[in-house]
Amino acid sequence: MMDEGTELSLTIAQIVQRLKATHLHSQIERQAKECLHRPEIQLESLKEDVRNFLKASGWERKLQNAVYRELHVQPLPSHPAAPPEHAKEPLAYMRKAQVNWEKRILKSLNSMCTELGVPLARKRPAVEQKELTNKWNEMGTDEPDLSRFRPVYAPKDFLEVLISLRNPNHDSSEEASAKSHWGLIQVPLHDRDIPQMREAYSELSLTTGQLGIDDHTHVPPDLFESEHTRIGKKVVNEQDSAAAQQYSRQGCPTGLRADLWALILNSTNEPEDVMHYEQLKAGVIHHDLLVDNLIYKDVKLTASNDDYYFVFEDFLYQVLLCFSRDTAVLEHFSYNSATPPKSYIQGKVGVEEFAVVYPPNGVIPFHGFSMYVAPLCFLYNEPSKLYSVFREMYVRYFFRLHSVSSSTSGIVSLCLQFERLLQTHLPQLFYHLREIGAQPLRIAFKWMVRAFSGYLSTDQLLLLWDRILGYDSLEIVAVLAAAVFAFRAENLMEVTSLTSAEVSVPRPQAGRLSPTHTHTGFHSGPWLLK
Amino acid sequence: SLFYQTAGYKGPYGYQKRREGDGRSCVRYKCGLTNTIQDVLRQRPGWMEVKDDGEWDFNWCDVGWLRENFDHSYMEEHVRICHFRNHYELTRKNLMVKNLKRYRKTLEREAGRIEASKCDFFPRTFELPSEYHLFVEEFKRSPGSTWIMKPVARSQGKGIFLFQKLKDIMDWKKVTPCGNDGSRSEEQRDETQVESYVAQRYIENPYLISGRKFDLRVYVLVTSYIPLKAWLYRDGFARFSSTRFSLTSIDDQYVHLTNVAVQKTAPDYDPEKGCKWQMQQLRRYLTARHGTETIEALFKDVDNIFVRSLQSVQKVIINDKHCFELYGYDILLDQDLKPWLIEVNASPSLTASSQEDYEMKCCLLEDTLHIVDMEGRLTGREKRVGGYDLMWNDGPVYREDVNLETLGSACFTANTHLGCVNDRKKQLRQLLKPFPGKKRI
After folding, report:
1. Do A253 and B211 touch (CB under 8 A)?
2. Which residue of A305, A315, A379 is in closest CB contact with B210?
3. A218-274: per-residue pLDDT in tens?
4. What does pTM read for this prediction?
5. Partners of residue B281 in chain A, C-beta under 8 Å
6. Sequence-ordered strand ranges (E) for B52-155
7. Which of A136, A309, A310 to probe by mutation at the B interface, max B CB count within 10 Å?
8. Using 50, 70 and 90 to split pLDDT, how confident is the model at A286?
C-alpha cells in the first residue's frame, strides 16, 4: 500500500507528464514569454508577476481545467508492482470475459468481411473521393445497398455475456434463499446502498432546487430557475470546469447547457481542434472502411427513424466516420477493460510489427451506437465542436456501457445495482416478473446501454446527462431504470408474459417516457434514496 | 333542450357566473368533416350528432357549406359555427396582402414609421395580373432574386412554382384582369372564375436545421373580431422539407415546399419517418443554440404577426357573434431569426399524420370546444383554457395581474406560451366544473 503522499506525487508527476505534450503547454509558455514586455512585470519579482499575469488573463484557469480533466480520465496510480492491465481492469475473471467477448466480435467481423468479399479497408479512387467531398454535408442522401451488412452485435447479445459471468472464487453453492440475488447478474460486486447514495447524491434531495422537476418540490420552481440561471451565467463567465460540474448536478438551463458541458468536458474548439477534425475528415475521404457501412446502417436504422433526431442524420455521419479514424481515442484503452482489435497485414499474422488496430480508433460500433451522438446534435452544430464533445463523452462514460468491467460506472455494476434496487424495494414485483419469465433486466438493459438515449424525450434525456456529468458517474442510469419500474409497478403486476411486460413499460417507438414518468422517476430516484 | 342550472355558483374568481342558465347539457351538432373533429365531437359528453336537415346548436362545417348556406340560415343566439362569413379576407393570399398593406398605411399615418414597420413581416407581394406592372418594377429593382408564384385560392401547395426570370411568367400578361372594372359583384369577385395569383419575394435565406428548411404551423383561435379576442395554442409543429435546401434546384418543389401534403408525394418520403418536430422540441433546440433571451424575442415577434394580421382585417370581417374560427398560421424563419408570415389557413388540416399528431389535434379541438363553451362553464375572465392562452382581449393580455400595485412596474410579459410545456390536463381539472350530469371525479 502506498501512503497518500507518494500517491499524490505520483499523480502529479503523471499529470505533468501528460500536459507537457499538449498544445496548452506551449501556449502558456508563449504567453509567459510574451508578457515579459509588459510594464507590470518587474525583474525583482519575476516569478510572482508572471504568475499573476497568467491568473488575470485566464490562462491559469485553463490550466486548472486541463488538470481537472486529467484527474477525471486517469486511472488512480496503483501499486508499483501491479501490471498495466490492472489499470484496465483489476479482476482477472472480468478481463478474461472481456477478451473472450472481443474474440467473438472480431470473428463475426472477419467472417462478414470474407462472406461479403468486402475488404476491411480500401483506398478510394480519385473520382469517388471527389464525389464524397462534394456530398460531405448531405451524406444522408446516399442510399447505398446495406442489406448485406448486419450489425456486429446488438445489446441483447452483450447481455447474454454478462449473464454468464461468474467469479471463480465465489462460492455459490449455498441453497437459493430469500437472501440470494434473484436477478440475472450473478457476480458479487460491491454497490452503494441507499443510505450511501443518499449522501452522495445529496443535491438530488427533494429539499434542494432542481431543474426538471415541477411537482412535489419544496422550492418553488420559478424562484429557483431564475436564481440558478443567474449562477449558471456566472459559472460560464468564470470558465471554471469544476464549478460547472458541481452546478450541473442541479440541471443546466437550456440556454447554457452547451457551454456548460463543453466546460465540464474541457472540450475546446481551438484551431488545433478544428485542424484535427479536418485531418480526420481527410482520412474519411481517402479511405473507405468496412465499419463505415456498419455506421451507415446503424444511423439509418436508429437515429433516422427517431422523431427527434432524424433531422441530424448528416451530422451523425460526419461525427461517426471521423471517430472511427481517430487514433487519439486509443489512449483511453489504458483504463478501459477492452482492448482494440488487432488485424495483421496479410501473411504476417501474429507478427507485432505488422499489427494494425482496426478500426483505427479501436471501437467497433454496435447496433444503436449512433444514439450516443444524436442528443448532442441538439446542442452543437459545428461539426468539430460536436465531435470534440462526443469524443470526450465517449472516453469518459460511454465506453463503460459496452465493456465488461468491475467499475462502479460499468454496465455490469449498473445492471447489478438496478436488480438490487428492485429486489430490495419492490420484491413483490420482481418476484412476479421472474415467475412469468420476464426478468426486469431484459427490459431495462437496452435503456441502460444507451444511457436512455432514444428512450426519453430530448429534454428529459439532457437533464439525465446533466447529472451523469455532474456526478461523474453512470450510476444514476441504474437508479432511473429502477424508478421507471417503480412508477409502472401497478401495471406490471398485472402482466402475464415478457411481451406484455415490454408493452407495459414505455417502448422506444413511442419515442420516450412521458415527462411525468421521468419527473417521477427522477423524483422517486431521490424518493428511493430517501 | 335542457337548461343547466347554475344558481348560486361562484366561478373561480368569486364572481357570479356570467352566463347563468345559458349552458346547455345537450348540444346538437353538425359536422361536415370526417377526421379528428368527428372523434372529438362524438366523444364530448352530452353532444349528439344531427343528420341532414335537423336543427343544430353547433356546426363544424367546411367553407363550401358556409358559402352556400350561411346567408340563408337563421341562427338562434346560442348557436355557434366554426367560420366567419368572410374569413377569406384573412386567408386568401391576395386579400390578406391587400388588407395588410392598407392597415400598414393607416398605421404609418396615425402612429408613424416605426409602428408601421411592425407590419413588415410579409415578403413583398403583388397580386397578378392586376398589379403586374408594379411587380415588374420591383422585380427589376432586385436582379437575381427569386420569386414564388402562388395561386390565390388553392391549398396544400398545389400550383405553386418558383422563378427567377420574367420570361417564366410572360403568359400572365395575357390573362384577362378580373374584378377591376367594378362590374362584378363582391360575391363574384371572391369566387374568382379566372385563377389569380400572387407573386411573392422568396425568402432565400431560410433558417436551416441540419441543412433542412422548415416552416411552423401555429394555431390561433378567434372568438370575436370586435372586440378582438384571440387565443394562442401552446402546441404546434415545425414541418421539415425531406431534402436539403439549395437554391440551385428551384425546380425541385420538394426542397422548397414544406407542406406535409407536398412532402407526401416526394419520392423518398417515408411515412414512417417523422418530418415534423413538436413546437416544444423546436423551441428547445433554438434556445439551446441561441440562448433564452434571443428566442424569447423571436417568439415575441411571432406574437406580433398574429396580432397585427388580425387587426388588419378587424374592420373588414363581418363580426357575427355566432362565429368563431380556428386558424392555422404558417410562419417561416430566416437566418437572422426574423419570422415571416407565409399564410393563414381557415381550415387547417385536422387529419392526423401519426399517433402523436392525432393526440395533439384532439387536444387542440377539445380545448377549442371548451373555449366556445356551449356548456356555459366558463366565466369569461379566464386567461388560460387547457393548451390555449388568451393572447389578445381588446388589448394585450399579460401574464401578470395588472392592478394598481403593478401598474407602475415596467415589466409586463405577454400571456403567450408558444412551444412551452402544455400541462393542459392539470389546468383543466382545476378550471372546469364537470359536465352537466356528471359528478366530479
Report:
1. no
2. A315
3. 566 677 888 899 999 999 999 999 999 999 999 999 999 999 999 999 998 888 899
4. 0.82
5. 308, 458
6. 58-60, 80-81, 125-128, 147-151
7. A310
8. very high
